[in-house]
Amino acid sequence: xxNNQKGNSMAKRLISMMVIATASMWALTGCDNATDSVDxxxxxxxxxxxxxxxxxxxxxxxxxDSGEKPADPTNYKYPFAIDSQNVRDYADYFKVDAxxxxxxxxxxxxxxxxxSKALDQLSETYxxxxxxxxxxxxxxxxxxxxxxxxxxxxxxxxxxAKGLVLPIxxxxxxxxxxxxxxxxxxxxx
Length: 189
Hints:
By secondary structure, the protein is an alpha+beta fold. The protein has one domain (3-33, 58-171). Helix content is 38%, strand content 13%. Helix 1 (3-30) packs parallel to helix 6 (112-122). The chain starts with a helix and ends in an 18-residue tail after the last strand.
């Protein structure tokens, strides 16, 4: 095995371990039984116009809002150097440029902040969530069908990613998220 092959194998293991660790943290956060609930009197335009349709719960994004102003990602001082091994490995693995990899690594590591605030309102309507990779990282939260679909650009407030934006999408499809990495799957060298 050449040094390059060893490096690629090691990079895949590192990324897999990062994804598994992040998923584990999300699973623990997802077990939070919040006492806050969504005001059921709020309705979307669709449900308000049809009296035979029961009202859907709507997330109140003002309760999720961090109060931070969005930062300019082009001039942002990221905690990962653009030429660091982590950034290069992420870019190679997800087939994105280095700037996108640098941004996504930072946002993904701070995403629990946004998830926990959304889960405070979703409580028992929460089904699963996923964080997309690629050119626009998005936190997709799958809920039961009685929650109204919505989208919100959350501005992170934690010092690690302060000012970076993480789009959140509420999808009331009742779908369990699919893990991109199977923790029981053995990595092939």
